[in-house]
Specification:
355 residues; alpha/beta; Aminopeptidase; Alpha-Beta Plaits; six-stranded mixed beta sheet; 28% helix
């Protein structure tokens, strides 16, 4: 139905422009949630809302069918000082649409909504739920995690993020470790005290050199990076505490709990994870939807960037229009042709698909 796809594409672009023009920083997405709710209502859907999360269940929903969740986010980071265009201006230069959240992830959100509406008129062999959610950029508790229990059993998730419509079938997880090395104060002029900073440096050397033995085909090794350190009160006092932070990007071969346990076994410092829920994810490359994507010429890859895949306890792939390299950059942009191709690409991936 080319006419329907073309109309939905124009509607999606108009929605995307409206989203860009409406401020939606994380935890402040109420106005874009209003826009999304109104868009679905105007197109004959019956949307639901909890907080700033908006979702719709297909009118063709049948309990005996498997369910696919279409998900992207409508929150954005704050624009940096180096923007030259108005972040909320939705400036159009030929095919190029400039604006905050245009690439990450407004284009994916609008394209998935158009895809959902297409299948409302062309019922597939599975159920569809489309959820455009909040707080993705901060991994917040009031985003997708807060509504998963209301969506029922999900068999597969398609997460809309800019991947140039290639399929991310694995994604690195994240665990942040707050570490404290302990010593004993003393005068720096005398041979006394126990220097917590030196203890921390021994730990940091281990963190820098250790290689986890299990490396992923798609994600490579676990990567640990010490990113912050703080110690000492004045120049002549041996510090009794040293605090440092470790950013750990995990692969799917280790849970975040595994990482915390292994680090604790090897360092002297106290180790406290900020959370352990942002785990790595991977879908089997032989999954029927992955194989369908590969047969359509989509590249399969592992993604180093975190998304809401991390909190979804079911199979997921990440795919969407745009390029991840543009995300969180000055004068972020999307090409309108990418949005149109994204909608066609999502429909092509799902049309005729069965588990």
């Amino acid at each position: 139905m080319p006419g329907l796809i073309e109309q939905l594409s124009e509607d999606a672009i108009a929605l995307l422009i409206q989203l860009i023009q409406t401020q939606s920083f994380s935890r402040e997405e109420d106005k874009t949630a209003d826009v999304l709710f109104g868009f679905l209502t105007a197109h004959g859907a019956q949307p639901n809302r909890l907080g700033n999360n908006v979702w719709a269940v297909s009118k063709h929903f049948a309990p005996h069918k498997p369910t696919i969740l279409l998900n992207s986010h409508h929150d954005t980071v704050k624009p940096g000082a180096s923007w030259t265009a108005d972040p909320f201006g939705a400036v159009l230069e030929g095919d190029k649409l400039i604006g905050l959240g245009s690439n990450d992830a407004g284009a994916s959100a609008a394209s998935l909504l158009a895809t959902f509406l297409y299948f409302e008129q062309n019922p597939p062999a599975f159920n569809l739920i489309c959820a455009i959610t909040a707080e993705e950029e901060i991994s917040g508790a009031n985003g997708i995690r807060s509504i998963l229990s209301q969506l029922g059993k999900i068999d597969l998730g398609i997460v809309g993020e800019p991947t140039q419509m290639d399929l991310a079938i694995a994604e690195k997880g994240l665990v942040v470790l707050d570490c404290v090395a302990h010593g004993r104060t003393g005068h720096a002029a005398r041979d006394e005290g126990e220097n917590a900073l030196y203890k921390a440096l021994d730990d940091i050397q281990w963190l820098r050199s250790y290689r986890f033995p299990n490396e992923s085909e798609f994600l490579g090794p676990v990567k640990m990076t010490v990113t912050q350190i703080q110690a000492g009160s004045q120049h002549n006092v041996v510090p009794d505490t040293c605090r440092f932070v470790v950013d750990v990007r995990t692969n799917e071969l280790y849970s975040n709990e595994d990482i915390v346990r292994i680090v604790r076994e090897h360092v002297q410092a106290d180790v406290t994870p900020r959370s352990v829920h942002l785990n790595s994810s991977r879908i089997d490359p032989t999954h029927p939807l992955v194989q369908r994507g590969a047969n359509l010429g989509r590249k399969l890859f592992g993604s180093a960037t975190l998304s809401d895949q991390a909190v979804m306890p079911f199979d997921t792939i990440k795919v969407g229009p745009g390029d991840s390299a543009r995300s969180h950059t000055p004068d972020e942009y999307i090409y309108l042709s990418e949005v149109r191709a994204g909608i066609k690409g999502y429909i092509e991936l799902l049309e005729g698909f069965s588990f």
